[in-house]
Amino acid sequence: MMESLFRLADHEDLFSRRCIWVNGPVIVGAGPSGLATAACLREQGVPFMVLERDDCIASLWQKRTYDRLKLHLPKQFCELPKVPFPDDFPEYPTKRQFIDYLESYAKHFKINPRFNECVQSARYDETCGLWRVKTVSTVCSSARTEVEYICRWLVVATGENAECVMPDIQGLGEFKGEITHACHYKSGESFKGKKVLVVGCGNSGMELSLDLCNHNASPSVVVRDSVHVLPREIFGKSTFGLAVMLLKWLPLWFVDKLLLVLAWLVLGDVEKYGLKRPSTGPMELKNTKGKTPVLDIGTLEKIRSGHIKVVPGIKRFYNHQVELVNGENLDIDAVLLATGYRSNVPSWLQEGEFFSKNGFPKRPFPHGWKGSAGLYAVGFTRRGLSGASSDAMNIAQEIGQVWKEETKQKKHRLTACHRRCISQF
């Protein structure tokens, strides 16, 4: 490995900037995916470095989620490797409980990320066979601190939700009311008494509409496309847990049919409220397109009662109005963009074989965790925390095996060298 470093120094002035050799993989991202990978590597005895652009772990959860958020799935489907949730946690832990779990997890495995390190670029240097990861400090100061990390393995753990998606809607820039993305929304308290247009009908859009309604706002939710709405629980059991159990014995298409029948029995006909179902089943749609069905926690009841209005797609915005595709005009005070997030990998990773232009691995689950030349990805499965945990264990097992073999060989070489030195004196 030292020979590689010498070749690197010849290739470019190694000491022209602060340069750090990492004796193990560099993990980019200290969210649940990065923490899970670091924990599994720790169990394998492999050293690592975690780089995080923010000043805390799980910044998405800590800074860009609303107050009422709870895990949508039962806790057994959301725990990270090696450490389950505490027994006294409810079946659907709150935002605060999940953050406490992650902080305890990091402490347990002695994971100490380098915070405020924003990766500007990462590329594989074929001359030396190593990854070069350049960062800049995100701490506000007059001095711009740049660091280059040199490593053999690079783990991309920035996840599916690194950057918020801002839609390009005609006239949005002309709208005179308040425009807020869901990542900045905390509570409906500040929207009390206001007419709010919620753009997006996924789980976030539906839950934010419910929260606005509970704070005496008047929300209208835009449902432009078809959407699956399922009860979070069916007869007291988790709908997702039921689906996972059934898929062990039954084909996907049959499970989807069964879920829709059960959903109709519990929720009734949702299409008469403007919630048209896709032709593709809910589980198949999640597996193929990554589109998660809405798990209803009370929003549908507010839609039935008329407290939440369902409206079709948007044509354009005006000063304090929105024109819908059906020609209807609504007076609104604020716009809440529940338009989701995207991967930011293409903006910094200089690589075109493993990742596609949309920032996701080209190979589908369960093969999307391993690239070439020591490149790995965790948390891009579109299967939530359970998918990230699976990736993390695979990555750590592979790196750990190589690490143990090479460490064993190195010990043998060091022992032989020591004996020769003694014999010379």
Q: Would you kindly provide a written description of the structure presented here, covering whatever features stand out?
A:
- The protein has helices at 2-11, 32-44, 59-63, 95-108, 203-214, 239-246, 252-267, 282-289, 299-305, 384-423; strands spanning 18-21, 26-28, 49-51, 117-125, 130-137, 146-151, 154-156, 163-164, 178-181, 195-199, 218-222, 229-231, 233-234, 237-238, 294-296, 309-311, 314-317, 321-324, 329-331, 334-337, 341-342, 375-377.
- By secondary structure, the chain is an alpha/beta fold.
- Strands 9-20-10-11-16 form a 5-stranded parallel β-sheet, with helices on one face. A 4-stranded mixed β-sheet has the order 1-6-5-4, with no helix packed on it.
- A hairpin with a 3-residue loop joins strand 17 and strand 18 (321-324).
- The two termini are 29 Å apart.
- Residues 9-16 and 414-425 have low confidence and may be disordered.
Radius of gyration: 25 Å
Taking strands numbered 1, 2, ... along the chain, how are they ordered across the largest sheet? Answer: 9-20-10-11-16
The strand count comes to 22
Percent in helix: 25-40%
Instruction: Tally the helices.
Output: 10
Shape: globular
Beta-strand percent range: 15-25%
Integer average pLDDT:
90
Identify low-pLDDT runs. Answer: 9-16, 414-425
- In whole angstroms, the N-to-C terminal distance is 29 Å
SS content category: alpha/beta
Major sheet size, sense and barrel closure: 5 strands, parallel
